[in-house]
Amino acid sequence: MSHQKIDIFDTSLRDGEQVPGCKLNTEQKLIIARELDELGVDVIEAGFPVSSPGDFNSVVGISKIVKSAAVCGLSRAVRNDIKVAAEALTYARKPRIHTGIGTSDSHIKYKFKSNREEILVRAFDAVSYAKTFVEDVEFYAEDAGRTDNAYLAKVCEVAIKAGATVLNIPDTTGYCLPSEYGAKIKYLKDNVKDIDKATISCHCHNDLGLATANSIEAIINGAGQVECTINGIGERAGNTALEEVVMILKQHPYLDCDTNINTKRLFHMSQLITKHMGISPQPNKAIVGANAFAHSSGIHQDGVIKRRDTYEIIDPADVGVTESAIVLTARSGRAALAYKAKNAGYDLTKLQLDEVYLNFLNFADKCKDVNDSDIHQIVETSKVYREI
Ligand code: KIV
Ligand code: ZN
């Protein structure tokens, strides 16, 4: 595989906003869009314009303010949706219409009460119609994860013939295994006529906790765009987390892929989404969780104090986190206590540390963690400290 620039398509404002109870107003969406543009994403999916007047207005507003990224509006394979999306994108410097239809047998039979041939016709019509408004048209094959590969290849061929510039292959239900999803992308690369006329995009959901792994496997097998959200927000178990994909590509240079993302802004971006959506990532969330760079066990703390990369594969500064945290708990050792005590102004001798450490353990056993004011109290009340 030769060196590849991977496009980052952020859908925090569309798929991500589908988290129950986390709807954003237009003003909030504009703030977030501006920051996504600063972060360096290639595409901002700004909304689903036909879904409500509020969403339409948000897409109009975002189109006006975004400077670098393409701005994308979602639509079903329905002419009126497409027309409304095109209207909402009028002011975008780089407009993209994202249109598509369900392609799995279950979607075709139960959702559309249709058949495979008719879906091909609708796909062709949707892309051709979207092309009358904008040059950049992305086609999604909803539930591609559970769509038979041979039929999916036919759908992709039809979309390319109609002028699609990007083919989105969503694992809508988060069902695929990484090997399966990677093989699907490779199958399309190997079997779709004129596949090089379009970029393959992966769009993974996290129902089985595999969204990031599946996205990476898709990249390895030829996907050139990743659809993702900040903090992995999204309906049900969420979408692929932008910060995870970006840092995996950065930390594994042998994959020979890069992105435009300014990784130093990742933590800030995560906090912005947390603030506006009102939900925090879980503390152990990779890259941006509160504990992602916190060390609490004695063995790890000793290693990190001696040399950070003993237990950290990412320099926290690379994602905008000021420094790693040494958290004192009853599992912490002397090295961590000496380190934290020194930061609090106490340069303890070995003798002092021995006693202070015993007092510390008695204290720590009774609480979750030990903060700076607890350290003052423990040191000041230790007999040996007072005597020296
Ligand atoms: O998950 C999905 O299939 C989607 C499409 C609408 C792109 O979000
Ligand atoms: Zn989705």
From TrEMBL:
GO terms for molecular function: 2-isopropylmalate synthase activity. Pfam families: HCS_D2, HMGL-like. Coiled coil: none annotated. Residues 6-267 form the Pyruvate carboxyltransferase domain. Its EC number is 2.3.3.13. The keyword Amino-acid biosynthesis applies. CDD domains: DRE_TIM_IPMS (cd07940). It is an enzyme of class 2 (transferase). SUPFAM superfamilies: Aldolase. Pathway: Amino-acid biosynthesis; L-leucine biosynthesis; L-leucine from 3-methyl-2-oxobutanoate: step 1/4. Keywords: Acyltransferase, Amino-acid biosynthesis, Branched-chain amino acid biosynthesis, Leucine biosynthesis, Manganese, Transferase. Belongs to the alpha-IPM synthase/homocitrate synthase family. LeuA type 1 subfamily. This is 2-isopropylmalate synthase. It comes from Psychroflexus longus.
